[in-house]
Design goal:
Layout lengths: L1 H23 L5 H16 L3 E8 L2 E4 L2 E3 L8 E4 L5 H8 L4 E3 L10 H9 L5 E8 L2 E9 L6 H8 L3 H7 L10
Antiparallel strand pairs: 1-2, 1-3, 1-7, 2-4, 5-6, 6-7
Helix pairs in contact: 1-2
């Protein structure tokens, strides 16, 4: 049983990596790559929203996003501080953020919870990209209504190749 589950998991991971590789192969521009990677990942993880947000000054900057059956809200500039300094500190240490249920998560102050609710974020997983000790971006997945955050994080952990390549200095960002 355990061996069969491991085999299925391995096959699922390989299929995803092939799909991602096929989708990215013909692309040249950083914007196209981020858009396509967000879509492929969002579809694979069955999340409502997936995007790559870069740090620009005190804002998150999102050029494009995969959004499924949700109000389009991700694209644009968003003040980082409104979501909570503790989240920025967490990201700065290279740690993932998992929100299993915004309403019951005791880490959030009321104004931070309100900021997340403005964007209709209730369950989410965010993975930071830190270069040379500095937070430069996050890969964000909003899960509301489709899949629980812990389940998405567990499934996304199978794709360490993507995270480690995203952490490499060769991934294009506006910040270098």
């Amino acid at each position: 049983m355990r061996a069969e589950a491991a085999q299925r998991e391995s096959e699922d991971r390989q299929l995803f990596l092939f799909k991602l590789s096929d989708a990215l192969r013909p692309l040249a521009g950083a914007s196209e790559i981020k858009t396509t990677a967000s879509r492929v990942l969002g579809e694979h993880l069955l999340v409502d929203r997936a995007f790559y947000a870069e740090v620009h000054g005190d804002d998150w900057s999102v050029e494009s996003a995969y959004e499924h059956a949700v109000e389009s809200q991700a694209v644009g500039r968003h003040p980082m501080a409104q979501f909570g300094q503790w989240i920025l500190d967490l990201f700065g240490r290279g740690e993932n953020l998992v929100i299993g249920d915004l309403q019951t998560d005791g880490r959030f102050e009321s104004h931070e919870r309100a900021a997340h609710e403005t964007y209709r974020i209730r369950d989410a997983v965010a993975v930071p990209l830190v270069k040379k000790g500095k937070l430069v971006a996050i890969l964000f997945n909003d899960i509301t209504g489709r899949r629980r955050a812990e389940e998405v994080l567990q499934r996304s952990r199978r794709y360490d190749d993507i995270s480690s390549s995203a952490r490499s200095p060769n991934v294009p960002t506006a910040n270098g």
